[in-house]
Write a structure and sequence with these properties.
The protein has helices spanning about 1-15, 110-120, 150-155, 350-355; strands spanning about 30-35, 45-55, 60-70, 75, 80-90, 95-110, 125-135, 140-150, 160-165, 185-195, 200-215, 220, 225-235, 235-255, 260-275, 285-290, 295, 300-305, 310-320, 325, 340, 360-365, 370-375. The protein is mostly beta strands. The chain is built from four helices and 23 strands. It has two domains: about 1-235 and about 325-365, no CATH class; about 235-320 and about 370-375.
């Protein structure tokens, strides 16, 4: 933890010495993705899942401020685990290998060192959280500060923000404050039980301000900062309608050695599933419907059920998950990646109180998988 605090102090000093100077917007295209840790069709609260991702060829990230929109509840957490963390980083000292990192997000008691580090990072926190990550036998601690928005930010609808400062990865080995392994952040996802989703219906716009480093110099480049956003439409839900019709047919059947005409009863089951986000169609959705665990169609379809049999019909919708993902770095469990639909720069609504006129570079809608089910019993 001491090494982390020294790094943050050095970074804070670099910020303090810079005005809005340095190279202009160059190669820096981060993305913010916000979703639910436990998708809930009715928007009934629950913890939040947050992800960030940058390109490997982007300038290194120096500082990120993530602004939480009004409607979300932020609890004062007691020291302890708040959720899980996954991340990936390109390690210059290991030939550029991409390292998977895993760990947890913890609430920690502030110390004199973390308080000083927060001040140097330009934030006065109400809470101090810690991203505790493990990779290649090393434990990396990254402080994450929870702070109230200033007057202008609060007036824009952002009462609370999360702030993190990262060490420079691309300065020469041996430079004080350099990132361990020369590790450059590529992606990170974390859940926090202290950030609860709104229960009220609505469209909620998260935003963030990202500041890169001047490549190879270890000094922040405020002029290269960009604003990026992520939208949440609450509730996101799938509705399932199932109807059944009794079908009676006369068939020939051998009974006690003789062919007789008998009545055969079956049930024709029809189903329709639809997805909505705050009452509107989602940017993208793929629906798969199963009956008794076997696929019977997509959003609509039908199947025949034997007399007297019962089973569960389940519609599973993969929503807003078609254009990208925040990788967890766990190839064997790629389904755990945080997927999203990329809305592009046109959907990014600039927040002057936050960006100060800097580019609003892009927006996403966080993906999730939701389902609805119904039990159907065949006629006799």
């Amino acid at each position: 933890m001491r090494r982390t605090i020294r790094v943050v102090l050095l970074l804070g000093a670099a910020f303090a010495s810079l005005a809005f100077a340095g190279s202009a917007f160059a190669s820096f295209a981060p993305k913010l993705v916000v979703s639910s840790a436990t998708p809930q069709a009715a928007g009934g609260g629950g913890p939040t899942r947050i992800g960030v991702v940058v390109n490997n060829n982007d300038d290194p990230t120096a500082k990120v401020s993530i602004y939480i929109p009004s409607g979300y509840q932020i609890a004062t957490a007691t020291p302890g685990k708040l959720g899980d963390v996954t991340a990936t980083a390109a390690a210059a000292d290991l030939g550029g290998a991409v390292l998977p990192l895993t760990g947890e997000l913890d609430a920690i008691a502030p110390t004199a060192a973390t308080t000083a580090a927060a001040a140097q990072c330009g934030v006065s926190p109400s809470q101090t959280w810690n991203l505790q990550l493990t990779a290649a036998g090393q434990t990396l601690n990254v402080p994450l500060f929870v702070a109230a928005g200033n007057a202008a930010e609060a007036a824009a609808g952002f009462q609370t923000k999360l702030v993190v400062c990262l060490p420079p990865p691309d300065v020469p080995a041996g430079t004080p404050g350099r990132a361990t392994f020369g590790a450059k952040l590529l992606s990170a996802t974390f859940t926090s039980s202290a950030i609860t989703q709104p229960t009220a219906t609505g469209d909620y716009r998260w935003t963030s301000l990202w500041t890169p480093y001047n490549p190879g110099k270890g000094t922040p480049n405020p002029a290269g900062s960009v604003e990026v956003q992520s939208l949440r439409h609450i509730p996101t839900q799938v509705s399932l309608t199932v109807t059944k019709k009794k079908v009676t047919a006369t068939i020939r059947k051998r009974v006690k050695g003789k062919i007789r005409k008998v009545k055969k009863v079956t049930t024709l089951v029809r189903f329709t599933a639809k997805v909505s986000e705050n009452g509107a169609a989602p940017a993208s959705a793929t629906i798969t419907t199963t009956a008794g665990g076997k696929k019977v169609g997509g959003a609509t379809g039908s199947f025949v059920l034997a007399a007297g049999k019962s089973l569960t019909v389940k519609a599973t919708a993969v929503v807003d998950s078609d254009t990208g993902s925040v990788p967890t770095g766990q190839p064997a469990n790629a389904a755990a990646d945080l997927f999203f639909h990329d809305l592009g720069a046109a959907a990014c609504v600039a927040t002057p109180a936050i960006s100060g006129g800097l580019p609003c570079a892009g927006a996403t809608v966080g993906g999730e998988t939701i389902s609805a089910s119904a039990t159907v019993k065949g006629f006799r």
